[in-house]
Write a structure and sequence with these properties.
By secondary structure, the protein is an alpha/beta fold. The protein contains nine helices and 16 strands. It folds into three domains: about 170 residues, RNA 3'-terminal phosphate cyclase domain (UDP-n-acetylglucosamine1-carboxyvinyl-transferase, Chain, Alpha-beta prism), CATH 3.65.10; about 100 residues, Dihydrodipicolinate Reductase, domain 2 (2-Layer Sandwich), CATH 3.30.360; about 60 residues, 2-Layer Sandwich (Ribosomal Protein S8, Chain: A, domain 1). Helix 5 packs parallel to helix 6.
Length: about 350
């Protein structure tokens, strides 16, 4: 049984999610200690418990230590299953982070899988559902892995109530490696600005602010940020909440950024934040933005061959994910670059070890 120290590197929930995901993929048991040791409230939170329960159900796993606040967990998967499943985080905990833990295992499901997950779709410290659908899942599709996502209802902090349905109609059983040493020229920029239980002008101001920054910094490009708003009398969301997600389609890649609204935070600031993050990552010339630079690592390690990519920032999250993937899969990963700077990643995928 592999033992993973949850206090390594950034010492947060990502170690738990990656270790469990790769345990499910390999069907090898894992023990995780010092879970979220570097967080203010260490141990399992409800969001993490949902990810564990979901993976356990999908893999017929035996679990020890599954309790709120637990800092040690043993996970023994038996087999990956197909079918339909529903999971409820019970809070505004991030649905996309739960999906981060589930999507690697579903590559090897023996048949179609359908999931319905309830919780937060647009919450701090996690990918927004629009970034997840328009950047993360499009990279998986590039690797031969099609995941369909339906946003039924948004959920924001603190009330949650979001609903996302995910379908994997044909699990690929193998992943294609990626060769992306640069982004290439920018073709177009798209985005979505939303608000729920708030006046329409909030979403419009977010979109306008984002477009102004993009045009002033990037010049005459095809830029379009759509506005999503609901009639207050028929708005199904618990809300209130708002946010912007942007994605730049380039010759060789796709880069994204997002930002969320908050009480007392002007809509213009939300739009500017998302645009400035995207502009900053595009200026690096790399194929991956700061978030995909770490989120893609487990999938590159699962691919059938060597992947070479460049990332906008070698974050502590990325460094930690590299370490966990090496521990779990024993694959060769070479990193050229220093923390918080642009970097190059070469991953020798090893499906034979899965």
């Amino acid at each position: 049984m592999k033992v993973i120290d949850g206090s390594y590197g950034e010492g947060g929930g990502q170690i738990l999610r990656t270790a469990l995901a790769l345990s499910a993929v390999t069907l090898e048991p894992v023990k995780i200690i010092n879970i979220r040791a570097k967080r203010r409230n260490p141990g399992l939170a409800r969001q993490h418990m949902t990810a564990v329960k979901a993976l356990a159900e999908l893999t017929d796993a035996e679990v020890e230590g599954l309790a709120l606040g637990s800092q040690e967990l043993v996970f023994r998967p038996r087999r990956i299953k197909a079918g339909k499943y529903r999971f409820d985080i019970g809070t505004a905990g991030s649905i996309t982070l739960v999906l981060q833990a589930l999507t690697p295992a579903l590559v090897y499901a023996p048949g179609p899988v359908e999931l319905e997950i309830r919780g937060g779709t647009d919450v701090s410290w996690s990918p927004t559902v629009d970034y997840f659908a328009n950047v993360f899942l499009r990279f998986l599709e590039r690797m031969g892995y099609r995941v369909e996502l339906e946003l039924v209802r948004r959920g924001h902090y603190p009330r949650g109530g979001g609903i996302v349905r995910v379908r994997v109609p044909a699990p690929p059983r193998r992943l294609t490696p990626i060769e992306a040493p640069e982004r290439g020229e920018i073709i177009r920029i798209r985005g979505r600005s939303h608000c729920v239980r708030l006046p329409r002008h909030v979403a419009e101001r977010q979109a306008s602010a984002a477009e102004r920054v993009l045009r002033s910094r990037l010049g005459d490009l095809d830029i379009r940020v759509e506005v999503e708003h609901y009639d207050p009398s028929r708005d199904p969301h618990l809300g209130p909440g708002s946010g912007v997600a942007l994605w730049a389609e380039t010759r060789y890649s796709l880069l994204g950024a997002d930002s969320l609204g908050a009480r007392g935070k002007p809509a213009e600031v939300v739009g500017r934040e998302a645009a400035e993050k995207l502009v900053e990552d595009l200026a690096r010339g790399t194929a991956l933005d700061r978030h995909m630079s770490d989120m893609i690592i487990p999938f590159l390690a699962m691919a059938d061959g060597v992947s070479t990519v460049t990332g906008a920032r070698y974050s502590l999250h990325a460094h930690t994910n590299v370490w966990v993937v090496k521990q779990m899969l024993g694959v060769e990963i070479e990193v050229e670059g220093r923390l918080d700077e642009p970097f190059k990643l070469r991953v020798s995928g090893s499906p034979s070890s899965l």
